[in-house]
Batch of 2 targets.
Target 1
Amino acid sequence: MKRNSTIDDVARAAGVARVTVSRVLNNGANVRPETRERVRRAMQELGYSVNQQARALASGMAREIMLIHAHSPELEPNSYYNAGLELGALRGCSALGFDLVTRAVDPEEKNRFRQLSSILDGQRPAGLILSPPLSDDIEFIETARRAGVQVVAVSAGEQARSSVLAVGIDERSAGRLVGAHLASLGHRRIGFIKGPPEHRAAALRYDGFLDALREAGIDDEPWTMTGDFTFKSGVEAAEQLLRESVPVTAIACANDDMAAGAMLALHRARLDIPEAISVTGFDDTPMSEIVWPPLTTVRQPIKDLAERAVHLLVEHQSKGGVHNDLLPFELIVRESTSRPTARA
Amino acid sequence: MKRNSTIDDVARAAGVARVTVSRVLNNGANVRPETRERVRRAMQELGYSVNQQARALASGMAREIMLIHAHSPELEPNSYYNAGLELGALRGCSALGFDLVTRAVDPEEKNRFRQLSSILDGQRPAGLILSPPLSDDIEFIETARRAGVQVVAVSAGEQARSSVLAVGIDERSAGRLVGAHLASLGHRRIGFIKGPPEHRAAALRYDGFLDALREAGIDDEPWTMTGDFTFKSGVEAAEQLLRESVPVTAIACANDDMAAGAMLALHRARLDIPEAISVTGFDDTPMSEIVWPPLTTVRQPIKDLAERAVHLLVEHQSKGGVHNDLLPFELIVRESTSRPTARA
DNA sequence: CACCAAAATGGAAGCGCTTCCATCGAGCAT
DNA sequence: ATGCTCGATGGAAGCGCTTCCATTTTGGTG
């Protein structure tokens, strides 16, 4: 029955005191480089890894990180996105010896600030992870900070990113990537189904999209429609477009759900995808491989975002400060996009 | 800055020693009922909750639970199912102060027993969560037990359920529910797309399905085809059925992915769902709401299964024994099923 | 070369809990 | 009554780590 080695084993092996090992562990100051190295080597040889439980217990710091996701009663929850965030956050917490507490708050609720304050008061978490559109709600963020809780905003817009810890992707570049893809295929008349205006990240995606069109010499304002990220709103937006007989050869959507909805509307209207109209999504949810045809979309590392958020929170414990982490994204080209057929 | 109350606070409030509170906490023996009650009340009043970190540290038990999911290189991983399991397991671990370690093992790999042994040897987890088809691999389970690790089988077949801890749903009844639904709508000729034979739970679903048909007076063997749970295999199975011109009015599938595949094949063949053919799935993945038409399916509480699995593992620590937890499931009737039209 | 601040290191306490062992009565047979 | 067992309770140690403070070492200065 092999017992994991402890900090004392390392200390003994390195010929130093336990405290010194602890300092090395926490990148503490006042350790001579050679001592540090010796301790490092001892850790290596013993295959040592810290016991997060013990660490958390000793340091006595709050052991909880709170994940708040938006959940309006009317809107169906974006289960994939939220599940991904929770999964990532849990992984991060697990690795760092924290507990995750998940809460839902209605972003429309007038009362949400008071609500947050009372939650924070009861729990005193070590940090708060906010997802859109809460991560763009500056007043909400400020309420949390006033309560002395470190905040990290996930996929937030520029304002939030410049005032608290943040993780996300370069939304604007991601949007540009989609626009460039469509433009390079030869599409000139493109429709865009946007997300809700409070969702700053989606707005940035749209800006990037416009950039790409402009760079490709397409200066006409594209036809746009605003959805609320649900499948249903995608259906409705596309139906609206068909009703108006807008002559587009491609429709870009601010997320996959709306793209799937749009595809359904097009299917119903007996329009072939991508022959008649190309469609793009955003997020690369599992659904994008299931719909027909498989959806061209942007893969966003949702789990990694949340995991990173936890680390950020722990690293910047009480240091306050602004830190903006951008994670990589990727355009996944599938069969829902092709060059426009010479017809429209 | 409110500090959470500790076991000592409770002890003081109840006028007993710390140990006694600990005994109450762990349902230990040798505490007089009235003392127990007094302690309980004190806990209540102080809003006490155990510090799992401290508990885990003190009890010195392994702090890790290992989730092993099957992952063959050829087969696309069932991301929704696996993500759900991981999410649930993480929640459970988080609540109980355990860490979750996730591993993937190829169930086809001859070498998997040795592989498992070496993993277990290195990590010594407090328990092992096995998902199908590994949870039906008796020899695999035995290997783990021989290494002295408690095992819980998720969604396993009867053999595994009778030899280790297990959580799942009553697969047979769930299958019966689907069969009864279809039969009650008036379908007499029904096709069934099965899962792989090693997947015992899927086989049970099929048995239950047959039971229902028999109960409805349908004694003909239904037309069946075996898939591997992938979207693609669903497409192929349905195409096979169409090629053979089997005169079914409904197709039941062992999971949602195959159902979605079958639907695609039917769409391509210009068959309307549910007018020409009804389709059912199993699992209620998010996809079932996205496909067109929305899929009638059985909702299985995947996250809860995994969460329960963790609890089982911890409760039965070193007690060995067999325990079979059945969680509730639910038939979700959507638009992919209707009475057969008077045509076939 | 003595002197001192600053850097490097170590000792000890304690986080909240469990576990091991000792203690204390009560109830029972002798 | 006396001795014993057994159920109920408490004392003390310690899990692996951090933190506070004391101590030793270093290297720069006059």
Target 2
Amino acid sequence: MVERTKPGEQARTFLPGPRQPSLADVAGMAGVSHMTVSRVVNESGPVRPETRERVLAAVQKLGYRPNTAARALVTGRSGTLGVVALESNLYGPASTLYGIENAARESGYGVAICSVTRPGRTSIGDAVESLRRQAVEGIIVIAPHVTAGRALAAAPADIPLVAVGGGESAPVPVLSVDQYDGARRVTEHLLALGHRTVWHVAGPEDWLEARDRERGWRETLEGHGLRVPAVVRGDWSPRSGYEAGRALAGKRGLKAVFSANDQMALGLLRAFTEAGVRVPEDVHVAGFDDVPEAAYFNPPLTTVRQDFIEVGRRTFGLLEERMAGGDAGARHLVPAELVVRESTGPR
Amino acid sequence: MVERTKPGEQARTFLPGPRQPSLADVAGMAGVSHMTVSRVVNESGPVRPETRERVLAAVQKLGYRPNTAARALVTGRSGTLGVVALESNLYGPASTLYGIENAARESGYGVAICSVTRPGRTSIGDAVESLRRQAVEGIIVIAPHVTAGRALAAAPADIPLVAVGGGESAPVPVLSVDQYDGARRVTEHLLALGHRTVWHVAGPEDWLEARDRERGWRETLEGHGLRVPAVVRGDWSPRSGYEAGRALAGKRGLKAVFSANDQMALGLLRAFTEAGVRVPEDVHVAGFDDVPEAAYFNPPLTTVRQDFIEVGRRTFGLLEERMAGGDAGARHLVPAELVVRESTGPR
DNA sequence: CGCATTTCAGTTAGCGCTAACACTACGTCG
DNA sequence: CGACGTAGTGTTAGCGCTAACTGAAATGCG
């Protein structure tokens, strides 16, 4: 299915041309030494205003663009950060990536990404290696995963590296949203509605976020001296939530369910609808993430919001500190916020 | 909220060390010239097996990693591609990004991203410029936007550039999913269910995909000699779909609605539920995108699936062709696939 | 055996840039 | 008025690598 180029809408031909202009070319045109041009371009060292003007005019005219490779070669700094991202459309990781990219660009860094399909020890190692070959100055690993944490334990010591959303015991600075506290808040919210207990649809066991959310839920129940029902485990997908919902729908005394993320909550809602279980009339349901759709689920979903822009910003900040040689601490938490909607609304 | 480093779980200190080993260091250790090492590393030129062994051992021992900057400086090739991505969690663009990254990495390219908040002419220009400063060899613009198309019209001619999902009349090769055909298929599907017409909740007017989907819907109705209802316009968000749903719920003769994406369809479903309009009993609803959640909407949503991995792969292919100096044609289409679920199910 | 070719290795130059230093012109100040 | 800073500019070296050439030894072959 290819419409070939037609006159009038023809694809422009790429012209490599002779060569990009260099400092020397600009210098020649402006009648100065290449060093003066360098000083103007980098605003390093004093230059007479009229000389600067001449140089700038030549830069403009020739369309001069500094050669990053040459600059990186001599300075040893590439101006690029690497991000190891999980290849998924999960709301959290994707949002974090944009948060990081924004913060980095504001500070003049470029961002190279390397996505990882399955977050195993080797694949993350490969990703890090691949980024190092791109001469990144520092690396951020989006690693909400247990194996990722292990991979980080083997992380190279000779490049600044920080992790976001995981790596509990990894020997690198880690930033994450306070999953434990978020889960605690949801559970408290559900209990405050008068329920005797809260069921939990957990995320995959090998995700740290899933573990923390589960722990928050469990310890809150225990703190109230309540019975802790067996968890139903899903894989973050709506499908697994749906299956969990079918398993739960029949349970006696099922009044409140906390799903470890919104997607599974969606599947849960669907299964309950099919089973004739009404939300919120018969059962209260809450999720985690506050995806943009959550407010329009049927019914709108009570959930926990995470500020991923902030997460990205602060993660970048950690890396910056690390690159400057600072310590950056070990573990940083960003608070989560409970968002109450109809799925836990009045009966 | 910072737990400071404690003994036993302390953050490793970053050691810049003296210097990364260079070709010369490896050469010294292996007792050969740096050129021989270069030949071994790049597998260019013949080297005696035992010499190669010695070199490889030295490479291993020193942890030698080629300096990309130096290599790029001398070869003029950076091995990096740039992707201009829309900063959004919209399913399509995010998936496309991963598709591209995958394909690029398989071919040995690194990927630098530059996200754009509002796809205006200047911001895309800035993004392209920012990537060029990172010395990318080619650029892919994920530009499902009308203004993006205009920005591409002003794209620089001296760097290979292709677009995905938009840029209708742009002077660059463009690849996109066949939105028109997808919309046509949905509409035909709804008409085949016996409806006298199909209503449409459109996407933002300045998105090309929205335009194509609307055109596919409109021309299908016209082709059948049917009345074309006024479109209700949304902004892709569930909220706007919800509002559209409230506006539509009262309409007389409302039997079938085609929403330009799944998120809006979700809002639509929610609004219908609140208004007591049953889907599929009273009204049939279809969406576009097939987000992972769509199968678990309430009811599961009939929609149009797009293969974004394929889109990424083929887009990268276009860029490769362009970088090789080829023409790459003007406009390429990837077919879309109708997925029928309960929201247009039997009554 | 003589000469051409191939194999394997080394030498040299230079990519475009910045760091470091050198030089000039002009104050400033004791 | 000479010593000394400072502004403004130039010169030089070298970052680590590959392209291109050079050279020596081994090989082919009529």
